[in-house]
Write a structure and sequence with these properties.
heterodimer, A: alpha+beta, Rossmann fold, OB fold (Dihydrolipoamide Acetyltransferase, E2P), 2 domains, six-stranded mixed beta sheet, five-stranded antiparallel beta sheet, B: mainly alpha, 71% helix, globular, binds adenosine-5'-triphosphate, binds magnesium ion, ABC_transporter-like_ATP-bd (chain A), ABC-type transporter activity (chain A), ATP hydrolysis activity (chain A), ATP-binding (chain A), ABC transporter ATP-binding protein (chain A)
Chain lengths: 357, 600
């Protein structure tokens, strides 16, 4: 069942004039789905979310909840629960009063309200914190109060705008599993905004990658990772290498390209790629899908190491292959290699993928 | 991104794009009008529905009366009144020049005193520093009339100091009396230097000491650091303060009144009005209004420019101890002197309040003391009436200021609508106009009934007084509301809306609730100013509506100095009570700011 639909939604701000903050976005989100808007800063994620919440109205396009058109419905009539990036907790109310605010508006009886507040605080592991003042909580606790306040009204859709961005790395990871758990338990649809791809990958059922107000790709995390729709998605997710290689032959599902050393290989390509022999194809190869070997090994691409950086788990290298910098993330590194060394690269040809420009 | 972005939504229904503007929600289910307003603050109509009545109030009671004054000034003899200002030896021209000259001199004097005080108190450590910091704003906190009277009692020809020195040195006439323009300048300096002091201290506090240290480190001497680093960094603060002092001096009325300087703009307005020449009074008022508005615009233009603010927070510059023993004694003597000078005005009022009326003639200080003045004020209904009047009129005005001021602040800060800057300017216009001009404007506009007075003549009635106070003190409430609003994260209100609250409810339970301390501080300020109001009142009061300050002035004229001072003392007490309450609110506000910091 479809819960939230955006149909050709665009938003232009009066002051910024012509450029659209959100440009012709089509998204449909299933009930119970954890859906993430992912993209670099300024790509229009917040604007999209705020249109769903009703804080902005689209310049054109429609928003539907189920079959109802809510495009111009005021925010207080939408039944969404929003967790704000800065939490937006009411500083003049206690934790319990904050959580109970939405229930009070819904005229939930006092006993019932108290029970549900307790339950919601329990869900976010803050049982017994009800009487605290907001300024007596840590950042992570405040974040969880904000979550409880949104959850307690049992909204049809949970909206989260970078709710973890103010937390330190460890707390981020803890909280994200928590959010996911609570969302699953409650069965809410959730729309989550982030520019952190690891977070998006770890939490989402599906992800919409946005750039410059446009949706670049919508798909499950694996799909986005392994089958990026275009060069932007490939580079943005996991900093893929996008190599421009000459096409020698094509089928419906593969494109055969020539490698810098003259060898040829068939690479999987999306249906309807539209490439023909003689053109150049963009091929995405992930840094971790490149192995290091000696230059003499047959089929290895020879190159020269220009950068080398040990990060603990992996070693990141930049290798110059016929003038093209290629990113490599290697777990196994031959002993004693250094910048300036000649080295052979072994591409994992199964994992290569043709992308649109 | 060219190509064909793959929208791989498994369940995406392909829907033809809708390009025409979507209809408001609820078409067909709800009446259209309801649909429009249902959007609350986010509906396109809402800002206009809220702003329209506010704009109407500002137009009706601030802008339109100004035009009425202009119409009055040209109504009878056309521009003839204005040509008065061009005639070489005319009163008009010399009044304008005197006013401008007094203002310029006031800027200079206040600048020297204020900046020097800021540097001494913020950069040096010496005995008595804390006490002086605590009382430094006392002279400026006095109501204008009481302030001017106290200086007259202290420094004029019949004042305590010149007579005291006369007795001390056994001279023929009082020593060093301040009269005329010099007297006016003394009052201005003592009551307006805080503009410079506050601006310069804030600038000094916001200044990263390492910038100054960097200059020394690069080899600059002390004078050079002053000239090339400190003064340029203080410039924005000093320019703002100069504009403020200039405007305030131009609007000053009580000081010229008490020191008998008739040829100033404000005095000419008063004199012409009391002589029944309203067109000429209106001409002076219009000219003064134009000059004040020019200064307002200059100030806004200047503040819109970038000001120097140090990037890093850093620690406040540490104060230098005065170590030299001679310097130490000099500093101690100077701080005792400063304390005496700062407290002398209040002390004088308190002393004279207990003197028997008519007993003080040629002595240095009054010779006979009594509590009778206060007894009279509280027991004689006719003497008590001015107090009741002031409290009542000021209260009514304050309520109006709060309702209108808070909503205008909200509209200007939070809503997006055409004409927002105009609304902002209209409020500040009320602030920029001198009290005498406000009074003349109201007289011009409401001597006959018009739409904004519901067809009633307001002049000569009770209502003109609270209306004048409302116009004068609305900007105070607006400013403090607007400043608090700036501290409140807009997403708090959005969170309330998201949880289902209507705009009114979200505004009431969250935004307004959080604004309370700031609004209350502004309201108290407006109330106190209303109780001390003199400048506009003296032009529009009737015998039934005379406020405290007018009563004080009348008592001074009939040489009941003791009773006059007793009234003044009551005003001063009220101000101190309010200052204490405000201080409490302020600390409450800082608690909520603390909370805001946490949540942000
Ligand atoms: N109220 C506004 N008025 C004018 N322009 C706006 C407004 N809000 C956002 N924009 C512009 O719209 C674009 C998208 O902004 P948005 O806040 O949606 O980005 P975002 O993807 O959430 O970025 P971030 O990750 O930095 O939060 C930006 O270019 C921004 O400058
Ligand atoms: Mg954002």
């Amino acid at each position: 069942m479809i819960d939230v639909t955006l149909e050709s939604v665009s938003k232009r701000f009066a002051r910024t004039g012509d450029t659209a903050a959100v440009d012709d976005v089509d998204i449909s989100i299933a009930a119970g789905e954890f859906f993430t808007l992912l993209g670099p800063s300024g790509c229009g994620k917040t604007t999209t979310l705020r249109m769903v919440a009703g804080f902005y109205f689209p310049t054109s396009g429609r928003i539907r909840f189920g079959t109802e058109d809510v495009t111009r419905r005021p925010p207080n009539k939408r039944d969404t629960g929003m967790v704000f990036q800065n939490y937006a907790l009411f500083p003049h109310m206690s934790v319990a009063q904050n959580v109970a605010y939405g229930l009070k508006i819904r005229r939930v009886g006092r006993a019932e309200s108290r029970r549900r507040v307790e339950e919601a605080l329990g869900q976010v592991h803050l049982a017994g914190y009800g009487e605290r003042r907001i300024d007596q909580l840590s950042g992570g606790q405040q974040q969880r109060v904000a979550l409880a306040r949104a959850l307690v009204i049992r909204p049809r859709t949970l909206l989260l705008d970078e709710p973890l961005s103010n937390l330190d790395a460890k707390l981020r990871e803890e909280t994200r599993t928590e959010i996911r758990r609570i969302q699953k338990e409650s069965g809410n649809t959730a729309i989550y905004v982030t520019h952190d791809q690891a977070e998006a990958m770890a939490m989402s059922d599906r992800i919409a990658v946005m750039e410059s107000g446009r949706v670049q790709q919508i798909g499950a995390p694996q799909e986005i990772y392994h089958r990026p729709a275009n060069a932007f998605v490939a580079r943005f997710i996991g900093r893929s290498n996008v190599l421009s290689l000459p096409v020698t032959a094509v089928t419906d599902e593969t494109v055969t390209v020539g490698l810098p050393d003259g060898a040829e290989t068939a690479v999987a390509a999306p249906v309807g790629h539209g490439l023909r022999a003689g053109e150049a194809a963009l091929v995405s190869v992930r840094p971790e899908h490149i192995g290091l070997t000696s230059t003499t090994e047959p089929g290895a691409l020879p190159g020269r190491i220009t950068e080398l950086e040990f990060t603990g788990m992996a070693t990141n290298l930049v290798v110059d292959v016929a003038g093209e910098p290629v990113q490599v993330a290697a777990i196994d590194v031959p002993a004693g290699i250094a910048v300036g060394d000649q080295i052979g690269l072994r591409l994992n040809r199964e994992r290569m993928w043709v992308v649109h420009p | 991104m060219g190509g064909a972005p793959v929208t791989a939504a498994p369940s995406a229904a392909t829907v033809p794009p809708i390009t025409e503007d979507p209809a408001p929600a609820g078409r067909g289910r709800r009446p259209r009008l309801g649909g429009r307003f249902a959007g609350g603050a986010s509906s396109r109509w809402f800002p206009y529905a809220l702003v329209f009545p506010l704009a109407l109030i500002l137009f009706g009671y601030v802008v339109q009366p100004m035009f009425a004054t202009f119409a009055e000034s040209v109504g009878v003899d056309g521009v003839a009144n204005y040509t008065e200002f061009l005639r070489g030896e005319g009163v008009a021209r010399s009044s304008l020049l005197t006013s401008l000259g007094i203002s310029a001199a006031s800027v200079l004097l206040c600048g020297i005193v204020g900046v020097a005080m800021a540097f001494l108190l913020k950069r040096f450590q010496f005995p008595g520093r804390r006490l002086i910091e605590a009382i430094i704003l006392v002279p400026a906190a006095l109501p204008p009339l009481i302030g001017a009277i106290s200086f007259q009692l202290l420094y004029s020809e019949t004042g305590i100091l010149p007579r005291g020195l006369q007795q001390l040195f056994g001279t023929e006439s009082p020593v060093l009396p301040f009269t005329g323009i010099a007297g006016v300048l003394v009052v201005h300096t003592f009551t307006m230097y805080p503009f410079f002091y506050l601006a310069a201290s804030a600038a000094l506090a916001g200044m990263d000491p390492s910038v100054e240290e960097a200059a020394y480190n690069l080899g600059a001497g002390r004078v050079r650091v002053w000239r090339t680093v400190l003064l340029p960094m203080l410039t924005p603060a000093l320019v703002s303060a100069s504009l403020l002092v200039f405007m305030t001096s131009l609007a000053s009325y009580t000081a010229p009144l008490l020191f008998g300087v008739d040829r100033t703009m404000t005095m000419q307005i008063y004199i012409n009005r009391t002589n029944g020449d309203l067109p000429m009074a209106s001409t002076y008022a219009s000219v003064l209004a134009v000059v004040s508005i020019l200064f307002l615009l200059a100030m806004r233009w200047y503040e819109g420019r970038r000001s120097y603010r140090s990037q890093s927070k850093g620690i406040a510059a540490h104060r230098r101890e005065i170590t030299n023993p001679f310097g130490k004694w000099a500093a101690l003597a100077a701080s005792i002197l400063a304390t005496v000078v700062l407290l002398a005005p209040v002390g004088t009022i308190a002393l004279v309040a207990f003197s028997a009326d008519g007993s003080w003639t040629t002595e240095v200080i009054p010779s006979a003391y009594t509590g009778q003045n206060f007894v009279t004020i509280f027991s004689d209904p006719r003497a008590f009436q001015p107090i009741l009047n002031s409290l009542q009129m000021s209260l009514i005005a304050t309520v109006g200021c709060v309702v209108v001021g808070v909503l205008i602040a909200y509209a200007v800060r939070r809503l997006d609508f055409r004409g927002r800057a105009l609304l902002d300017v209209a409020v500040m216009l009320a602030w920029a106009l001198p009290g005498t001009v406000v009074a003349i404007n109201l007289i011009s506009a409401f001597s006959t009934g018009n739409v904004f007075s519901f067809g009633q003549v307001l002049i000569g009635t009770f209502w003109i007084m609270p209306l004048a106070y409302f116009v004068r003190f609305l900007p105070l409430v607006f400013r403090s509301s607007s400043a608090t609003l700036a501290q409140i994260d807009p997403s708090l209100e959005e969170a309330a809306r998201n949880l289902g609250a209507s705009w009114w409810r979200a505004f009431g339970t969250v935004t307004l609730r959080l604004m309370v301390p700031g609004v209350a501080a502004g309201a108290l300020l407006a109330f106190v100013n209303g109780v001390g109001e003199f400048v506009a009142s003296v032009l529009i009061y009737t015998s039934q509506t005379a406020p405290i300050s007018v009563e004080i002035n009348n008592r001074m004229y009939s040489f009941e100095v003791g009773t006059a001072a007793a009234y003044g003392m009551l005003q001063v007490v009220l101000i101190f009570v309010v200052m204490v309450i405000s201080g409490r609110l302020q600390s409450g506000r800082s608690a909520s700011r603390e909370a805001a910091k946490w949540t942000a």
